Amino acid sequence: MQTIGVLTSGGDAPGMNAAIRAVVRMGIYRGLKVVGIRKGYSGLLAGDFVDMDLGSVADIIHRGGTILQTARCEAFKTEEGQRHAVEKLTARGIEGVVVIGGDGSFRGAVELAKRGIATVGVPGTIDNDIAGTDTTIGFDTAVNTVIEAVDKIRDTATSHERTFLVEVMGRRAGDIALSAGLACGAETILIPEEEYSIDEIVERLERSFKRGKRHSILVVAEGVGSAMAIADKIRERIGWEMRVTVLGHIQRGGSPTAADRVLASRMGAMAVELLLQGHSAKMVGIQNRRLVAIDMEDAVARPHRPDLGLFDLARILAI
Ligand code: F6P
C-alpha cells in the first residue's frame, strides 16, 4: 500500500482533528502518501482531495471541529454513488481509507471495503453510541461541556428556587445524559434506554421539596423526547417555577479534553497500522483501556448499550 485517504463524516466531534493528525503523521512516518478527503463522502464523490504533509496538520490537536470538514451524504448510500466513489479513489491511487465518524459513516466504509478499497473506521461521535468500544472520540469533551453548563444553571436554579430541565444530545443514546447527570449530581436523569413516569418524577421532586430542597436539575437525553413537553407535564402537576434549557450544538464544539486527544491520537495511529497490515472493514475500539480491532460490520449491527450501572448509582446518590 502506498497511498491512503482520510475523511471525517457525520456530525463533527472534538478530537477529530487530533485523529486526522495521527493518521497523517503516522502514515508519513510509515512511508505512505496521505490524501485528505474533504467534506466526508460528499467530497469523495466530488473528488475533493488534498495532499497532506506534516505541516498540514500542525497546530490542530487542540482545535474542535474538523479541518477536513464533514457532511452527511445521501448520494453515497446508493450503489451508483458507491461505484462512483471507488472510481474516484482508484483514479487518485488511494488504496485504503481511514473513516473517522459514527455508525452511518461505517456503513459506508463497509460498502467501500466490499468493492475492494481497504477501510478502517475510527469512532468519532459525541454520542458514544457505537458497539465494540467503551468510548468514542468527542464523548468526554461533550460530557465536560454539559457539566460546565449545568454547574452554571445550578447556580441560578439555587438562587431562584427553580426546577430546570436540561436537554442534552446523544441521538438515540443516553450516554451523555448518564455521565453528565451523574457528574452534576442531577436529581433526575431521563434516558431512552430506561422507562420513566411523570408520577415518579413528581414524587421525587415533592419528596426533596419536603426535606427543604427548593431547586432541582433534571437532565433529559434528547432521545427521550422534547424536554419542553416533559416540563409542561410536570408543571401541570407541581405548579412550581420551571425552566427548560436545550444545550444543543454547544456540545459538539470546543477544544478536546486530554482524554479525547490521547484517544484520538492512539486510534488514528492504529488505523494506519491496521491498513498496513492488510486489514479491511475493521473498526478501532477501546476496551478496558486497550485498543482493539473489531469487525466493522459487526460493530454497526450490534446495538449499543450504555452503562446502566451509572443510572442506578445516580438515582441512589440523588435520593
Ligand atoms: O450525532 C451527533 C449529534 O450531535 C447528535 O447528538 C444529534 O442528535 C445530531 O448529531 C444533530 O445533528 P445535526 O447537527 O445534523 O442537527
Could you please describe the fold and organization of this structure?
The protein is elongated. The mean pLDDT is 97. The N and C termini lie far apart (58 Å). The chain is built from 11 helices and 11 strands. It has 319 residues and is an alpha/beta fold. The strands form 2 sheets. It has a 7-stranded mixed sheet, sandwiched between helices. The protein binds 6-O-phosphono-beta-D-fructofuranose.
How would you sum up this structure in a few lines?
Residues 4-275 form the Phosphofructokinase domain. The protein has 11 helices and 11 strands. It has 319 residues and is an alpha/beta fold.
Mind telling me the CATH class of the largest domain? Alpha Beta
Compute the number of helices: 11
SSE order, as H and E?
A: EHEHEHEHEHEHEHEHEHEEHH
CATH topology of the largest domain: Rossmann fold
Rg, nearest Å: 22 Å
- Give me the count of strands: 11
Please indicate the percent range of residues in DSSP E strands (runs of 2 or more): 15-25%
List keywords for this structure.
Rossmann fold; 2 domains; 7-stranded mixed β-sheet; 4-stranded parallel β-sheet; 11 strands; binds 6-O-phosphono-beta-D-fructofuranose; AMP binding; kinase
Protein topology:
Elements: E1 3-8, H1 16-29, E2 33-37, H2 40-46, E3 49-52, H3 79-91, E4 96-101, H4 103-114, E5 118-123, H5 139-160, E6 163-168, H6 175-184, E7 188-190, H7 198-210, E8 216-221, H8 227-238, E9 242-246, H9 258-276, E10 282-287, E11 290-295, H10 296-301, H11 308-317
Parallel strand pairs: 1-2, 1-4, 4-5, 5-10, 6-8, 6-9, 7-8
Antiparallel strand pairs: 2-3, 10-11
Helix pairs in contact: 1-9, 2-3, 5-6, 6-11, 7-8
The structure holds 6-O-phosphono-beta-D-fructofuranose (F6P).
